[in-house]
Design goal:
Blueprint (H helix, E strand, L loop, with lengths): L2 E12 L2 E12 L3 E5 L6 H9 L1 H4 L3 E8 L6 E4 L12 H11 L7 H11 L15 H15 L3 E5 L7 H18 L2 E5 L12 E6 L2 E4 L2 H13 L4 E2 L9 E12 L2 E12 L3 E6 L5 H8 L6 E6 L2 E2 L5 H7 E4 L12 H9 L9 H10 L15 H14 L4 E5 L7 H15 L5 E5 L12 E6 L2 E5 L1 E2 L1
Parallel strand pairs: 3-7, 3-8, 5-6, 6-7, 13-18, 13-19, 16-17, 17-18
Antiparallel strand pairs: 1-2, 1-4, 8-9, 10-21, 11-12, 11-14, 14-15, 19-20
GO molecular function, one term: ATP binding
Pfam families: ABC_tran
InterPro entries: AAA+_ATPase, ABC_transporter-like_ATP-bd, ABC_transporter-like_CS, ABC_transpr_CbiO/EcfA_su, ECF_ABC_transporter_ATP-bd, P-loop_NTPase
């Protein structure tokens, strides 16, 4: 069986700063391969090398070679789908891609419809991309690569913002591409659920190099991960709890499309509340409304005060929204500059310089202080983003997909830092997440968002 063959590969982004070292690995053609490793270990870098994006647009292959057999064509689904888009709607994106491939215009509509149907997003064809949820954008990015009909499909954290049911369905469809069209599938992922029954090979990347696991060791790795993700247990809020937010006849819509119609709801103070729901249901839009960044009708109260009556500057100091896309949070150039900016807004000496250094060490960011934030891996960006916002000690944290791009150890470190702070300070956390890894014993309450309503449930698995 032929394979993508990588021999003695060494890659640097900067001189004397090795990202990949002495990589020797083969990815078999027509197989489903899974690449796992810590945030910032080089998974995205390897995929970009295989597509030719690197070193074309950065870095240097110091030595070594790689070969792709039979001139097979490669397509990549980026970890951040925003980096993949050029135009305004899925239709225009797909037309643009197919035009660049010199596809006969008469054949384009059928190819576009088939790609959208594959990802079950036909209804999104003319939606503005900047109005889509993170999960919907990831599905559009996948549809683009499907339309390109590449022989080798590389996917970089493709399901990080996708709800569990859609994730399972898309994995099954990728298996179909392997089995029925002999496509080669290579996925880099931190969330290892759902792969045990479908992958052919598992590779680990650590200390700048890659190891091919035996069949038995690969299955054991996936089994061990499943054991680390027990069901999250949550209770229903009891009466007379202190309330952080109260919704009264809250109506939220976007482009004339109703998302939420909530007659009343209370979110407890000083607790962690998880919000789940299908992609595009309106979760991120709800957070924008709670942060006073989007219009709504009805009333949202914080600590019994209508948030519309709270001055914007004061409210921004008390309620911090951590965006789903980390880059939207950054204001300067380097990690050091971002941290210095957050330090200017500290409310107490809890996050003193020693504590910040300790947190950076826990998160494996301490040696990256002078790196440009936009050159960090997506997982490193996410860890930095969360740290920057908790340094300013807001009363309320709104976390939109905070686990995206994070390995399980990084999730545990983030939860540890948050819990240590909350042990000494009253802080309310409301979080949106499709991933539950590492959240057991962290979440107090669970809200399910469906049919334009938020409803408390007792458990989520």
């Amino acid at each position: 069986m032929s394979s993508i063959d990588i021999q003695n590969l060494n890659f640097n982004y900067q001189p004397n700063s090795t990202t990949l070292s002495d990589v020797n690995v083969q990815f078999e053609i027509g197989q489903f391969s899974l690449l796992v490793g810590p945030s910032g270990s080089g998974k995205s870098t390897l995929l970009k090398i295989l597509t030719g994006l690197l070193p074309e647009f950065g870095g240097e292959i110091v030595n070594g070679v790689f070969s792709i057999p039979n001139q097979l064509k490669v397509g990549l689904v980026f970890q951040n789908p925003n980096h993949q888009f050029t135009l305004d709607t899925p239709r225009h994106e797909l037309e643009f891609v197919l035009e660049n491939l010199r596809i006969d215009p008469k054949l384009m509509p059928a190819k576009i419809n088939a790609a959208l149907a594959f990802c079950e997003i036909e209804s999104l064809i003319d939606r503005q991309l900047n109005t889509l949820s993170g999960g919907e954008k990831q599905k559009v990015a996948l549809a683009i690569v499907i339309a390109m009909n590449r022989d080798i499909i590389l996917l970089d954290e493709p399901f990080a913002s996708i709800d569990p049911q859609s994730r399972a369905e898309l994995i099954a469809k990728l298996v179909t591409l392997r089995d029925q069209q002999q496509k080669t599938i290579i996925i880099a992922d931190h969330d290892l659920l759902g792969y045990k029954q479908v992958v052919d090979h598992v590779y680990t990347i650590h200390n700048q190099t890659i190891q091919t696991l035996s069949r038995e060791d690969g299955l054991q790795l996936l089994t061990d991960f499943e054991k680390q993700v027990p069901a999250i247990t949550s209770t229903l809020p009891i009466a007379n709890l202190e309330v952080a937010f109260n919704f009264d006849e809250l109506q939220i819509q976007i482009q004339q499309h109703a998302l939420l119609s909530q007659s009343s709801l209370q979110i407890p103070s000083g607790k962690v509340t998880l919000i789940t729901g299908e992609n595009g249901i309106g979760k991120s839009t709800l957070f924008l409304s709670m942060a006073k960044l989007m219009k709504f009708s009805g009333e949202i109260q914080m600590n019994q005060t209508n948030i519309q009556k709270i001055k914007a500057k004061k409210y921004a100091r008390e309620v911090a929204l951590i965006f789903q896309d980390s880059e939207n949070q950054f204001l300067t150039v380097t990690m050091r500059e971002e941290i210095e900016l957050s330090k200017q807004h500290r409310k107490s000496d809890y996050f003193n310089d020693a504590m910040i250094t300790s947190c950076l060490t826990q998160l494996n960011l301490n040696e990256l202080l002078d790196q440009v934030v936009y050159t960090l891996s997506e997982g490193q960006k996410k860890k930095l983003q969360i740290l920057l916002m908790i340094i300013v000690e807001p009363e309320v944290l709104l976390l939109d997909e905070p686990l995206k791009g994070l390995d399980i150890d990084s999730i545990h470190q983030i939860v540890t830092i948050l819990n240590a702070y909350r042990a000494e300070h009253q802080q309310t956390i409301v979080m949106i997440s499709h991933q539950f890894s590492g959240l057991n014993q962290f979440v107090d309450y669970h809200l399910n968002f469906a049919n334009q309503k938020l409803t408390y449930v007792e458990t989520v698995s």
